[in-house]
């Protein structure tokens, strides 16, 4: 006995024409919105997959984007449509603002380990398919928090490049200078994975790494790798393509610097002269003393060349790194396949310290010099002992110049 509802009524008799049209219109609007939503979800999905689903169709704007490094062009560097490019710029603006706020919050430590967060907010190569202007504009209008969740994740990668040595060669300086580059992400501390913690496994090692986005290089530095017998095979087992950087410095001044560092921690150790010799009157050098042993570069290099081709190693002069940091950084950026972004504009020389410092980085408030421990003054060493050491190292140095095809100028 229920009254006949509108659904049960005959359309022709019960409903006026305008109402029918309105219903159809509502129905169409609903399905349009639904399909837009489905499309939006599909695009999101396509972005998390690394396959070149959408990339085949686009003009590859990303590769020519001046903001990106040369490394752009990986499997996920796909086509970017104009709307997406615009959106990316908006995002980058937001990120810069956020970064600046973060830096203002931590003025004392502009580039410590916690600056990871700064780059975690960089956007990955954004992928939107054809018709992206419709679905895309709704993304652009979403609040920034949602965007961060959807787009700004990044992931931890095993390092593609490692500074493997040498101790007291200038590895810290090189890493700090390199970190100025937006496409370089590096661990602040020395992981010592391939010498001390190898049994913890690669997953543990990867967990130490900062998050990176496509086109960014993950790096670490542990100077003791260069003199660790097992390190070449272990790094090669991780990836045969790992790029290796060695900062080398005159082995005699390196040894003295090494000793000076130890002395500052343990003032009671014997003199440099007495540690240098096994038998001083016979002039017999104690090559088992690590301060001496590390400087026999040619011997260590032999082990590396059994696992890596020479072209995969870059030898940075520790002396030139101080005299002409921009010049050496140019070589390093080329070697890593990075755009030359770090130039002499980034440095100034502190005459008191005798050391180059970084000018304030973009958005940062303060200039950045290395800590107090860098550039210590060395104790006076008996000139006769220094000469004996020069004679000792000369043949090894010449061999090293030969092997690397580079004259580092330590022997006149
Ligand atoms: C040191 O060398 C000298 C000269 O060669 C030798 O007479 C002396 O026995 C050596 N001393 C030690 C402790 O080996
Ligand atoms: C240069 O280094 C000295 C000694 O470390 C430091 O006191 C000074 O502030 C530095 N000057 C500049 C301009 O960085």
UniProtKB/TrEMBL annotation:
GO terms assigned for molecular function: [heparan sulfate]-glucosamine 3-sulfotransferase activity
GO CC, one annotated term: Golgi membrane
Chain residue ranges for the region called Disordered: 94-140
Binding site for 3'-phosphoadenylyl sulfate: 168-172, 249, 257, 374-378
Coiled coil (UniProt feature): none
Biased composition (Basic residues): 94-103
Main location: Golgi
Pfam families in the record: Sulfotransfer_1
Protein's membrane topology: Single-pass type II membrane protein
Sulfotransferase domain location: 159-394
EC number: 2.8.2.-
Gene3D superfamilies xrefs: P-loop containing nucleotide triphosphate hydrolases
InterPro entries: NST/OST, P-loop_NTPase, Sulfotransferase_dom
Disulfide bridge positions per record: 357-369
Top-level class of the enzyme under EC nomenclature: transferase
Subcellular localization: Golgi apparatus membrane
Transmembrane segments: 21-40
Entry keywords, A to Z: Disulfide bond, Glycoprotein, Golgi apparatus, Membrane, Signal-anchor, Transferase, Transmembrane, Transmembrane helix
Source organism superkingdom: Eukaryota
Active site, renumbered: 168 (for sulfotransferase activity)
Annotated family: Belongs to the sulfotransferase 1 family.
Name of the protein in its database record: Sulfotransferase
